[in-house]
Model the fold of this input.
Amino acid sequence: MSEFGGKKASVVSLYGQVLAPDTFDPTPEIRELWDKVYNQMREEFGEAVFRSWLKPMALQAAYHGTLEISVPTRFMKDWIQTNYVMRILEMCAAVSAEVKRIEIVVVHGHVKTDETEGSALQVPAKANVNDMAAQLDLSSPLDPRFKFDTFVVGKSNALAHAAASRVVECNVPFNPLFIYGGVGLGKTHLMHAIAWELQEKRPEKSVMYLSAEKFMYQFVRAIRAQDTMTFKEIFRSVDVLMIDDIQFIAGKDSTQEEFFHTFNALVDQNKQIIISADRAPSELTGIDERLRSRMSWGLVADIHPSTYDLRLGILKARCGQIGREVPDAVLEFLALKITSNIRELEGSLNRIVAHADVTKCAITLESTQEVLQDLLRSNDRRVTIDEIQKQVAEHYNVRLSDMHSARRARQVARPRQVAMYLAKQLTSRSLPEIGRKFGGRDHTTVMHAVRKIEELIAEDPSLAQDVDILRRTLTG
Ligand code: ADP
Ligand code: MG
Done:
């Protein structure tokens, strides 16, 4: 085994790491073998994998049929060992049958390859961060439906939407951007939209999006693999870091600590951070005070519960996307009825559309109520006058205070009469009681309103429908 005569020059340190040999001078045959395999790896595994993982591999020693190859981090070692080493061995063996084993060793701060300086390899080159993160499964996949053009803007989410757009248009307009709001109100949608848009408009930026849960999981994994270095390197070299649902790390002290340092390192380099949570920074109990206050330094944008108009807008947009015509009355009914959460709203639309497909029946208000029975029943409650006033005000887009006010303009007087009519129909309150709830009006006023609406129902189909929708919504 003459060409493998080079002595094993590396030394195992007290800490178990293999230290770099100062003098390993491979024979020309070995040098040639390695060069050949090195180039072959690039061809076979592709440029992205090669640059992320294989490029830093350096010939370290050769002895007794073993080729010893160094890499700069433990993480890289594990990764290569799991994914590539068998194939690399085959390549080597194809060149020289004498190669029987490949030993990957970690040599911190000492990397040599044929083309690259060691220092450059310590931190992955910027263009590689995306590849590398993807390889490592660090970032989360982006939902192709969650883009800016499918996000419907209304009063309740206008601020968050504007802030998200600014982050794409300007370079770090505020840091961090903190978006918060209840479940299913579009936080994740907005974050994905930012990531998509950045990929398109600023492809040179490395963007990383992941949930706080995943951040923690990766961090713990890095600790187990004793390779927090790679973890830190990757997270601290992105241009835009997006962490979704940060409330998840409440009570997880070491993850918070790591996130705090990552956060600071990125802010110091003027790199954009975007965070989402289900509540305001100040209300994130279980999260360290330092971190909480740091997170509110930039722009804090909240997404409010949706309005009727927004819900209707979303439903209409959705019908457009899936290319379906659904009667307005049905959409209005859904928008009125399913108020808590946009995910549920979209789910109910999908359900009625699917039902119509299967049964080959048209979508009607009746079929909708039937299909969504369980959902609607779970929302069933005793109706109160307050609720009636609120629904009616929302439906007609008037202020709730107009239910009590003395204003007599038609656009507020008619909705008020509808509300009184519904209060009479749907509650057991007496006319004087209802009158009192409507800004202390007389019972004869209530009586007049009830009669007036009864008349109008008979002659004005659109008003009849309004009342019908409101009644069904309120009663489930
Ligand atoms: P969150 O992350 O706040 O819990 P998501 O972003 O996952 O909520 O949104 C839930 C669902 O509602 C998604 O399907 C999303 O596309 C949709 N959605 C929420 N807000 C809007 C909006 N303004 N326009 C269109 N779709 C929306
Ligand atoms: Mg979310």
Q: What stands out?
A: The radius of gyration is 32 Å. DSSP finds 22 helices and ten strands in the chain. Residues 182 and 221 are 30 Å apart (CA to CA).
